[in-house]
């Protein structure tokens, strides 16, 4: 086996289970010698905070924005820096570097951007998470979801405990019949099959063309909600309900942290669509700022502000247009 590390591009639509799969993997002893690069479509680095709780794994963040758009030179720089730092430390080389890309990223531009790293001989493969319950609906609305599944050498089905897989399997068979499929209910075993899985033919993957070219993500808004100073705990809880009720099926993803006033430990808040998971205390993330990233389609900050009525929250956007693609 060559000593060059694998580069695994972990893609998959918003909320399809990328971070969870990585957590399952990092809990296993076989995960030693893995490095992570995390990219999120929002300035609150939720995935980074979750994965940091796993502890001990070398991790780099890509600054805010969508890695498929304008951050690809940062990616090359980051990979080089991780490899050089590891060499300087005298530790054994990484076996794999995993990029968890944002749930809106298209794999094609990311793969193409790796060209300057060709002399390093990284073995590249693309793994896509596919939410058994939601993939078919997401693919019907979002080119990004189709592009992610189409680019994958391996598709791993998630949330098998919540849903049958017939629709998602039919979708993958139609979009990418050659992909290796991982349909494994046991989560530790699922993670092993993904990260210890064999290499694929990089040439095939580098051939990937995006379904929608390099266009921006025109229907998707990434908004940031922060609480006014006088907001109470009840205001925070009400907000979650109001958000789901007002946005309905336009709501794609909510991630972030809230704090009960007067306490230090933040609670991780997550929703996929309008379905909120129970809040999870994150004692290891005391320094994170409070706030929620809301990713929705066909929704502006002004509309959301109006829809939330007098709630004591600020609704902002990330920079002027956080997901603006700059096709190179
Ligand atoms: N029941 C169940 N829930 C899961 C599974 N995988 C992920 N989830 C939940 O789905 C939600 C989203 O999971 P993440 O792992 O954060 O998804 P992601 O793809 O990293 O999300 P983004 O980074 O926003 O694109 C979380 O609330 C998870 O706990 C699974 O296999 N079963």
TrEMBL record:
UniProt keyword annotations, A-Z: Chaperone, Hydrolase, Nucleotide-binding
Domain CobW/HypB/UreG nucleotide-binding span(s) in chain numbering: 8-171
SUPFAM superfamilies in the record: Hypothetical protein YjiA, C-terminal domain (SSF90002), P-loop containing nucleoside triphosphate hydrolases (SSF52540)
InterPro entries in UniProt: CobW-likC_sf, CobW-like_C, CobW/HypB/UreG_nucleotide-bd, P-loop_NTPase, Zinc-reg_GTPase_activator
Chemical reaction(s) catalysed: GTP + H2O = GDP + phosphate + H(+)
Keyword Hydrolase: yes
One Pfam family, short name: cobW
Keyword Hydrolase: yes
Stretches assigned to the CobW C-terminal domain: 229-309
PANTHER family per the UniProt record, alphabetical: COBW DOMAIN-CONTAINING PROTEIN, COBW-RELATED
Function: Zinc chaperone that directly transfers zinc cofactor to target proteins, thereby activating them. Zinc is transferred from the CXCC motif in the GTPase domain to the zinc binding site in target proteins in a process requiring GTP hydrolysis.
UniProt-recorded name of the protein: GTP-binding protein
């Amino acid at each position: 086996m060559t000593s060059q590390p694998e580069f695994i591009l972990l893609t998959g639509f918003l909320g399809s289970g990328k971070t969870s799969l990585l957590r399952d993997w990092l809990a296993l002893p076989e995960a030693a010698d893995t490095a992570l690069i995390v990219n999120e479509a929002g300035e609150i680095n939720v995935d980074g905070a979750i994965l940091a709780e796993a502890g001990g794994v070398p991790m780099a963040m890509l600054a805010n924005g969508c890695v498929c758009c304008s951050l690809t030179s940062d990616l090359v720089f980051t990979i080089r820096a991780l490899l050089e730092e590891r060499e300087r430390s005298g530790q054994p080389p990484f076996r794999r570097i995993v990029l968890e890309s944002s749930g809106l990223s298209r794999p094609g531009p990311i793969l193409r951007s790796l060209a300057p790293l060709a002399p390093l001989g990284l073995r590249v493969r693309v793994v896509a998470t596919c939410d058994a319950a939601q993939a078919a609906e997401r693919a019907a609305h979002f080119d990004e979801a189709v592009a992610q599944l189409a680019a994958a050498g391996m598709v791993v089905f998630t949330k098998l405990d919540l849903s049958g897989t017939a629709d998602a399997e039919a979708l993958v068979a139609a979009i990418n019949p050659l992909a290796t499929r991982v349909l494994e209910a046991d989560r530790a075993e699922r993670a092993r099959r993904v990260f210890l899985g064999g290499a694929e033919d990089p040439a095939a993957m580098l051939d990937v063309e995006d379904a929608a070219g390099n266009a921006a993500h025109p229907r998707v808004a990434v908004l940031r909600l922060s609480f006014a100073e006088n907001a109470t705990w009840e205001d925070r809880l009400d907000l979650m309900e109001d958000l789901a009720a007002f946005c309905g099926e336009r709501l794609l993803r909510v991630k972030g942290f809230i704090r009960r006033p007067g306490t230090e430990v933040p609670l991780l808040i997550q929703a996929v669509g309008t379905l909120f998971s129970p809040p999870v205390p994150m004692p290891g993330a005391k320094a994170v700022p409070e706030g929620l990233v809301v990713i929705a389609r066909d929704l502006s900050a002004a509309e959301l502000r109006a829809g939330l009525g007098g709630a004591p929250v600020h609704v902002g956007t990330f920079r002027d247009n956080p997901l603006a693609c700059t096709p190179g």
